[in-house]
Structure formats: structure tokens, C-alpha cells
Amino acid sequence: MLSQVQFEGNRAIAGSGPSPGLGKGGAIFITPRQLQPDAAAKVVVRDEPLALIDNWATDAADRPTDSHDVYGALRFERRAF
Fold this sequence. Notes:
The protein contains no helices and 8 strands.
């Protein structure tokens, strides 16, 4: 769960070598179910806006679930008072 956090200036850079990895999710990488079916990886942003500033990923796809800031699905909730 994330609340009142800021991610700034993070980088995800693709690897090199015979089996290079991809640079995904400059600030937050959430393991997708396809890679880890038993994991219940969920990231919840609660109440306050999440600040994502100047993050970068070499293989970002410019989609809500694959950007320079985040790879994976974030869930936004408001806490009941």
C-alpha cells in the first residue's frame, strides 16, 4: 500500500549479454501474474496522489500498465472516514 509517496529520478535500464532483460517500470515494477501465478502482487494507492516525477524505462510502452513510471497495475482507493 502506498500513501503520500513520491518517486523521482528512477531508471530501469535494459540489460546486456546473451539473455538481456528489459527496462520496465522506472519507479515501480509490479510482477505480473503471467510471471508468478502464485503471487498476489497488488499495489494499492490510498488517499493521497502518487507523485511520479522524471522516471525513465528503456522499454516503456506508453500505456497505463507499462510506462516510464510503472510496469503493472496500480489500484487506487479512497479510505472511508
